[in-house]
């Protein structure tokens, strides 16, 4: 006996619902992922070391280092809001006798083989963040890994605000040094670098120039370590 058309449609809807619910209840639970540095997953940003920018301080013949790429540790030395390990990219800004490292971007990677379930998340000290929320911050993907720019987790300020804050802090410290006993008559004169901060010729915008380069060119600088 042939099943009535209405009952037949209802049967297929019921069957599809059973299959869907079975997939939900019997699939692997969503993965709670811990972010990894690029170095830990066998990738490198070493090619960034060849990128050159205008020297922030014109007293030097050339800007010696364009980027410093450092791997984080579990002691949260470089980041407080990230779980696991990470790679942080710095702008090394000349300051007195050494470079002051201004963080430009934090990166974390996850292995594609570790992603499963309906709502995989990335662990942070403040709770899990869904990978789908980070999708707009994806900077690289291949069959092995996905790399995210997780700067928004670690820092809420824009790079323009970071640059302005750094410039204001250098100016304040330069003024304090200028009026300290270190530069009293008969001892020593202010350095050219210190004067460049005070007279406005120090190019703090190099920080934003580097950050803009990263936004436009980061993916092409991510390479397997032994490629």
Structural class: alpha+beta
State the helical fraction. 25-40%
Helix tally equals 6
Distance between the termini: 67 Å
Largest sheet: 5 strands, antiparallel
Q: Enumerate the strands of the largest sheet in spatial order, edge to edge or round the barrel.
A: 3-4-5-9-8
Uncertain ranges = 11-15, 17-27
How many beta-strand segments?
Answer: 10
| SSE topology string | HEEEEEEEHEEHHHHE
Instruction: Please report which band the strand proportion falls in: under 5%, 5-15%, 15-25%, 25-35%, 35-45% or over 45%.
Output: 15-25%
Mean pLDDT, as a whole number?
81
Shape: elongated
Write down the Rg: 26 Å
Tell me briefly what this model is:
The protein is α+β, with helices and mostly antiparallel strands. Helix content is 30%, strand content 20%.
Walkthrough of the structure:
The protein is α+β, with helices and mostly antiparallel strands. The chain contains 6 helices and 10 strands. The chain has helices spanning 5-26, 131-134, 151-154, 159-178, 192-198, 206-217, and strands at residues 32-33, 43-44, 68-71, 87-95, 98-111, 121-122, 129-130, 138-141, 145-149, 223-224. 24% of the residues are buried.
């Amino acid at each position: 006996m042939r099943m009535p058309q209405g009952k037949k449609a209802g049967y297929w809807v019921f069957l599809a619902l059973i299959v869907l619910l079975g997939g939900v209840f019997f699939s692997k639970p969503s993965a709670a992922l811990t972010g990894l540095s690029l170095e830990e997953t066998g990738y490198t940003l070493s090619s960034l070391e060849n990128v050159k920018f205008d020297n922030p301080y014109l007293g030097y013949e050339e800007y010696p280092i364009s980027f410093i790429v450092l791997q984080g540790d579990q002691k949260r030395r470089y980041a407080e809001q990230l779980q696991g390990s990470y790679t942080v990219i710095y702008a090394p800004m000349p300051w007195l006798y050494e470079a002051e490292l201004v963080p430009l971007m934090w990166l974390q990677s996850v292995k594609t083989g570790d992603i499963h379930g309906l709502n995989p998340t990335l662990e942070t000290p403040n709770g899990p963040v869904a990978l789908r929320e980070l999708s707009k911050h994806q900077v690289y993907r291949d069959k092995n890994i996905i790399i995210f720019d997780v700067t928004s987790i670690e820092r809420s300020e824009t790079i323009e605000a970071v640059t302005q804050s750094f410039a204001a802090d250098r100016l304040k410290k330069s003024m304090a040094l200028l009026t300290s006993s270190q530069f009293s008559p008969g001892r020593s004169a202010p350095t050219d670098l210190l004067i460049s901060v005070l007279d406005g010729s120090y190019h703090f915008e190099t920080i934003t120039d580097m950050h803009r380069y990263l936004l436009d060119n980061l993916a092409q600088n991510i390479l397997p370590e032994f490629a």
